[in-house]
């Protein structure tokens, strides 16, 4: 790896950390990235707060590999011991909100793209930096890969989704279904035991959900996981609650669709269950994928991810792989090591070069 790639990547990430960029508020960080890529001699295009950059030798007749990472963050945790927008002055580590999730992937993928931009590869290389990932917004990756998205992403065949995985490769990703439950009772005075206690209705339903088992087991991801994570009821100690609200978090496998799960669980409960959305499907790399063959050839460790990402919005054959660690995400005092960024740049370049060889060989042998 050329030293200037790492130096520029680190400087860009420090600049990103200094700019607040919560979901739906990415305009300033998108501008920073756009002008940085342009200053590097690349040709970025902006679509809202998304940035798409196609390789110098782009050809519509070639298949395309997208390098995808998101530019937005969650809100800073109250537990930060310092300024969440200050990356610090330690040359070996970058602190701050978004440094690990997902700034490390953003700058590492951008650096790898930059290194390969002028190569005459057998595939098109596309850099896609998207907004609204943390809130599953409609104008981020969903727009880029949808029917009305730009040609470069709309027609892509494969995606490397950059997320903090320690540069291991996630070949499966659980879907996410969040259900807001509401139990309806009737308020009354506790001293006279009046009314119908909505809290008891909710507790009965929660027990049913706790006892429920999904019978289809994924050979890759195992069992679907269901947890009730929040409950709220009551206004005073002497009032029977007429309404109780609770939240159900379901992390499901490719064996189920979210609408199917909603129907199954609604049939168990007296409470109403309302999904926040039905778009967060499970994902899995194709078993015959050249991405998977590249992972195997390079000896990269594979795993199934319990967390969701842009993968489910791409609708493409993909893997998830990036610098940093998932355990640092959405926590106070987030950080990423400069050495992790350097390692990621090298590994991304090697991966893409190997992928091109694997894919070319498959085409010659008529396997793809």
Question: Can you offer a commentary on this structure?
Answer:
The structure is a single chain. The chain has 368 residues and is an alpha/beta fold. Helix content is 32%, strand content 23%. It has ten helices and 17 strands. The strands form five sheets. It has a six-stranded mixed β-sheet with strand order 1-2-5-3-6-16, covered by helices on one side. Strand 1 and strand 2 form a beta hairpin. Helix 1 (3-17) packs antiparallel against helix 3, helix 3 (99-116) packs across helix 10 and helix 8 (290-298) packs across helix 10 (338-364). The radius of gyration is 23 Å and the shape is globular. The mean pLDDT is 94.
Nutshell version of this structure?
The protein is 32% helix and 23% strand. The protein has 368 residues and is α/β, with parallel strands linked by helices.
Give structural attributes.
368 residues, alpha/beta, 17 strands, globular
**Through-space gap between termini:** 31 Å
Number of strands: 17
Question: What are the secondary-structure elements, in order, as H or E?
Answer: HHEEEEHEHHEEEEHEEEHEEHEHEEH
**Main sheet specs:** 6 strands, mixed
Quickly count the helices: 10
Query: How much of the residues is beta strand, in percent?
Result: 15-25%
- CA radius of gyration is 23 Å
Global mean pLDDT:
94
